Amino acid sequence: MTINGLERLFGNRWEIARKIQKDILDRFGITCSIGIGDNKFLAKVVMDLHAKKTRIAECKYEDVAEKIWPFPVQDIWGIGHRMMKNLHRMGIVTLGQIANYKFERLQQRFGVMGEQLYWHAWGIDLSPVFGDFTKHEQKSFGHGIALLRDYSKEDVATCILDLCEEACRRARTAGKAGRTIQLGISYSRNTAGGFSRSRSIDIPTNVTMDMYDVCIQLFHEFYDGQSKIRHVHVGLTKLHDKEDVDIQLDLFEDRTKKNDIGYVMDAVRDKYGSTAILRASSYTDAGVTLERSKKIGGHYA
After folding, report:
1. Are 178 and 170 in contact (CB under 8 A)?
2. Which of 16-20, 197-201, 252-256 has the lowest mean pLDDT?
3. What is the CATH number of the domain that holds 63?
4. Contacts 24+ apart (CB under 8 A), 1-7
5. Among positive and negative, which fits the CA dihedral 99, 101, 104, 107?
6. 2 C-beta neighbours (distance < 10 Å), count
7. Is residue 286's pLDDT more than 70?
8. C or N: which end of the chain has fewer Cβ atoms within 10 Å?
9. How many domains does the chain have?
10. What pTM value is reported for the model?
11. What gap in Å lies between CA 171 and CA 205, rounded to an integer?
């Protein structure tokens, strides 16, 4: 949030941050970390690097060299594992080294992303705090997770099922069904690579097991058979309004019942909480739903 001009009403930026923390604690019973910066990039980065230990941290433009430059590039928001490896090959290990690298070479090597890396290394972010709040039509429903350990091919099926459950729940809530199902797999750091594939089906669906069956087909077709897995993503795209989708009768399965089961499970979760009713596999070591339910925005409360 931008707090410029609010000093007379609520105090300075530190006083406002403390009031926000207290209000969240009083209302919800949870603690939080707050980053303060001259732009939203600095606020986000100083929160990740410092505020999680001190609860509140601040980084102004003049503090960038001291508070951000010494940290490894992989500790900075926006730099993933692949970018980290590319930077390491160039001899760049810390954010300070990016800031002092030749802008033209970064631009030539990474294009627009290289420009962003350079300006972020100097703490410069010109994007507005508030984006475009115009309502846009939802194009897809997807969920991904960076796993806390390497998963084998036996474990990953449970993870895929949990993610399909959440993606389909969101689609049902929005009254949508999708014709194209996507699966993305990234291997562990010791084995670079992975794959991302999609497949379209005849009848749009928001049934968890329909989506799961297609994802498992894609996994068995494109998985290399031996690499450990560290990131999984599923997606449901090519959306249709649910009321426009005809449920074709099938002699071998009750499609109406399959649809109803999903909506009943959603109603139970809406009333009693996201973990009130789960599939048995979610309670195994490979399940991810229980662990995800303990986080807010990907972070532990």
Report:
1. no
2. 252-256
3. 1.10.150.20
4. 1/129, 2/129, 2/130
5. negative
6. 10
7. yes
8. N
9. 2
10. 0.58
11. 9
